[in-house]
Amino acid sequence: MELNKSEFVYDIEHSPAYAALVLTLQANQSIVVEASAMAAMDSCITMATKVRGGMMQGIKRMVGGESIFMNEFTAQGKAGQLYVSPGVPGDVQHYALTDNQALMVQSSGFVACSPTVDVDSQFQGFKGFFSGESLFLLRLTGQGSVWFSSYGGIVEVPVAGDYVVDTGYVVAFESSLQYEVEMLGGLSFKGLRTGILGGEGLVCRFRGEGRLWIQSRNIYPLVNFLSPFRPVRS
Asked: What is the pLDDT of residue 208?
């Protein structure tokens, strides 16, 4: 049975610690992949580097810490396999995007998507500034397949009401969820003391109904742990 060009044959291997996305592209089928994420591919697959959404969208992604370019891979004339490897060790998750729902993904979490999906940088304003995270989330709209990655394993949380997540653990969430960044315990002296002494700080409070994906590890404590061991010039 021949598949529709919007459908993809894929497998997620070595999950959840060192997941890699393996795509089997049909003849003349294309996929959009984050820059530098291609690990290997069959020789029938060609790559074209593009600024998707125009130069302004590319500049917004660059300011948000993403590459200004994205790579589009196409299987020329026959089927071929494409191996995609995220930048940090962790898991990969597939999401079926529809026209009535957008998906918000952390700026470093995008892996790949259908050519029919639009990838836009969404400004967070002071939400992102005070959280110490990127000032941009990626907003994915349209219809098709999306793959995103994490540092560590991915946990799916069905939110119905309120839910609180440390800012460093948020991977992706559906646009039906509203969120605010706040200090755990509030901005009072007691709240600040709780945050500092308890080792917790700013969190995202989600409200509404929708799905949220969090990662099992936070990369920033690892960076802080490794920092004293980095080589320095004398």
From this structure: 97
